[in-house]
Amino acid sequence: MMSAQIGSIRIQEADFSIDEEYRRLRIAHPAQNGAICTFSGLVREFGDKEGVTGMFLEHYPGMTEHSLQLIIDQAAGRWKLNDVAVIHRVGQLSLSDQIVFVGVSSAHRADAFAACEFIMDYLKTDAPFWKKECHAQGSQWVEAKESDRNRTKKWS
Amino acid sequence: MKILFFASLREQLNTEEEEWQELNGALTAGDILSQLQTRGEPWASSLNADRLLVSVNQEISNLKTKITADDELAFFPPVTGG
Q1: Which stretches does DSSP call E strand in A52-150?
Q2: In whole angstroms, how large is the CA radius of gyration of chain B?
Q3: What pTM did the predictor assign?
Q4: Which pLDDT tens digit goes with each residue over B50-76?
Q5: Does the distance separating the beta carbons of A143 and B81 come in below 8 Å?
Q6: Neighbouring C-alpha atoms within 13 Å toward the C-beta of A112
């Protein structure tokens, strides 16, 4: 059975509020939601190098939204989901800033947990974003990680 | 044809985007890459990276993907978002 496409995708420089996103997911499907799983990723002090002071994020406008929708579609085909929200920030970020948000609502927690992890794992290996870490000595582009690719592979 | 470069590749080539009116006989994404590589440095070595990715019309593709003058090609390093 074909179901309507779900998911909201936002690529933005501005910060986001998890409270607001959670509320939006919660009220979107009244009485249908039994579980909402949310994930947020933050800028931390140690990346490819120690002493990270910030991060610059670049993306491929158009392809980014397209690839995230494909990931959400795959998740919605695999688990029973009510709604999905993905937000990814771009531009210049500072230490402790929020980078990414994934929220999934479902009737059951197992579907919400699994889909949230699946979307995040695929986002890391398939969506065209690139991070550049800033530290006292300058800045450098982050290397893609084998561990991230392995996490994605485990879903196939 | 529009050709885009992102992230480290964009910086190394000091080029974000270029527009080609003619494909100069190119039939695949790989043919375009070969033509870019003939420009000498930094094009030759930057575009020679093992793990260079290519997209055609915003979908991950490969060097054998067929292209036309209306397509949008992009070359970029492995992605690192999230």
Answers
A1: 52-59, 83-89, 91-94, 98-106, 129-135, 138-141
A2: 12
A3: 0.95
A4: 789 999 999 999 999 999 999 999 999
A5: no
A6: 20
| pLDDT tens, position by position, A112-124 | 999 999 999 999 9
C-beta of residue A118 within 8 angstroms of C-beta of residue A75: yes
- pLDDT attached to residue A3: 64
Alpha-carbon Rg for chain A, nearest whole angstrom, is 16
pLDDT at B49 over 90: no
CB contact under 8 A, B6 and A130: yes
CA atoms within 13 A on the CB side of A150: 3
CA distance A99 to A101: 7
pLDDT digits (tens, 9 = 90+) for A88-107: 999 999 999 999 999 999 99
Enter the tokens of residue A48: 């490819």
* Tokens, residue A110: 């197992």
Is any Cβ of chain A less than 8 angstroms from the Cβ of B25? no
Shortest Cα distance from B47 to chain A (angstroms)? 16
Chain B interface disruption, residue of A42, A43, A49, A63, most B CBs within 10 A: A63
For residue A117, give the 3-state DSSP assignment. helix
Which positions in chain A have a beta carbon within 8 angstroms of at least one beta carbon in chain B? 41, 57-60, 62-63, 66-67, 88, 99-100, 120, 123-132, 141-145, 148
- CB burial of residue A64 (10 Å; 0-12, 13-18, 19+): buried
Work out whether the CA dihedral B82, A86, A23, A78 comes out positive or negative: negative
